[in-house]
């Protein structure tokens, strides 16, 4: 993908959360967004996901400018798969129905074809035996794998992950990170907000450090972690790596 942000700004009340960000990340397969809590990572991811409209400016994906009007956002959202920290599964629906519902209602796929796609996605993540279960009957790792299965079922051009493992214990974290790595090896493009620095370094081509609504620096993962250029990023990494 080619991702660029163009004078992008977003405020909540008087709080300027994304502060006039212009950056061209260039051609990349996977981008990790790191930075301190409250720095604007989730807001930026939601804007790129088309779930939040910027106040001004915009962004372009593969040279295509995405506007702030609802029609352009809706068209954009159709090609994305999004996975959040807290699963966002429909609690009253089975794992299977969580995947078929958007395929039918948003993508207009016939029920029988949607079920076939959903069963295949569940099989792929070793969830075939859990298809009939509701989220409350699944473990955290299983829920998150259902969320990932749902995200890839539509064959998105880009996957967006917002801290997909932060609600999980270490074993389940490893399970979900394995799945993400697998998707990367398959050649899927993704954008990942994460606190897992080791994983970001391992799996992302590029890393962007976002603090106080600005991209303070970005670069190839190996370089940024080995030799951060800004004091903010150096301090952030030192703080994180101390623990
Ligand atoms: N819907 C909202 N309404 C009001 N303020 C919001 C909203 N969403 C985010 N904010 C504020 O925007 C700022 C950035 O929040 P954001 O969630 O983007 O940060 P973050 O970098 O993802 O933090 P974390 O690492 O804790 O998830 C915070 O000050 C937050 O309180
Ligand atoms: Mg966040």
Describe the structure.
This protein is of the alpha/beta class. It has two domains: about 30-55 and about 65-80 and about 155-243, P-loop containing nucleotide triphosphate hydrolases (Rossmann fold, 3-Layer(aba) Sandwich); about 90-155, no CATH class. Helix content is about 40%, strand content about 25%. It is built from nine helices and ten strands. It has helices at about 40-50, 70-75, 95-105, 110-125, 140-155, 170-185, 195-205, 220-225, 230-240, and strands spanning about 1-10, 15-25, 30-35, 55-60, 65, 80-85, 160, 190-195, 205-210, 215-220. The longest helix has 16 residues, at about 170-185. The protein is globular and about 50 Å long. The model has no long low-confidence stretch (mean pLDDT about 90). Bound molecules: adenosine-5'-triphosphate (ATP) and magnesium ion. The site of magnesium ion has 2 residues, from helix 1.
Task: Lay out the secondary structure.
Blueprint: E1 2-12, E2 15-27, E3 30-34, H1 41-48, E4 56-61, E5 64-66, H2 70-77, E6 80-83, H3 95-105, H4 111-124, H5 140-153, E7 158-162, H6 170-185, E8 190-193, H7 197-203, E9 206-211, E10 214-220, H8 221-226, H9 231-241
Parallel strand pairs: 3-8, 3-9, 6-7, 7-8
Antiparallel strand pairs: 1-2, 1-4, 4-5, 9-10
Helix pairs in contact: 3-4, 3-5, 4-5, 5-6
């Amino acid at each position: 993908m080619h991702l660029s942000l163009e004078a992008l700004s977003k405020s909540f009340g008087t709080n300027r959360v994304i502060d006039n960000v212009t950056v061209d990340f260039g051609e990349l397969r996977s981008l990790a967004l790191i930075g301190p809590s409250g720095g604007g990572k989730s807001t930026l991811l939601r804007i790129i996901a088309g779930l939040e409209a910027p106040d001004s400016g915009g962004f372009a994906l593969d040279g295509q400018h995405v506007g702030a009007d609802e029609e352009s956002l809706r068209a954009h959202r159709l090609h994305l798969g999004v996975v959040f920290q807290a699963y966002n599964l429909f609690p009253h629906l089975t794992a299977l129905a969580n995947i078929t519902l958007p395929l039918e209602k948003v993508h207009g796929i016939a029920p029988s074809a949607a079920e076939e796609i959903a069963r295949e996605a569940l099989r792929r993540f070793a969830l075939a035996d859990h298809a009939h279960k509701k989220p409350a009957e699944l473990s955290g790792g299983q829920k998150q794998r259902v969320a990932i299965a749902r995200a890839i079922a539509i064959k998105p051009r880009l996957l967006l992950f917002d801290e997909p493992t932060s609600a999980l214990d270490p074993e389940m974290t490893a399970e979900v990170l394995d799945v993400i790595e697998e998707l990367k090896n398959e050649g899927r493009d993704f954008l990942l907000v994460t606190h897992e620095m080791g994983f970001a370094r391992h799996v992302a081509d590029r890393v962007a450090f976002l603090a106080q609504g600005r991209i303070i620096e970005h670069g190839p993962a190996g370089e940024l972690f080995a030799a951060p250029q800004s004091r903010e990023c150096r301090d952030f990494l030192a703080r994180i790596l101390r623990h």
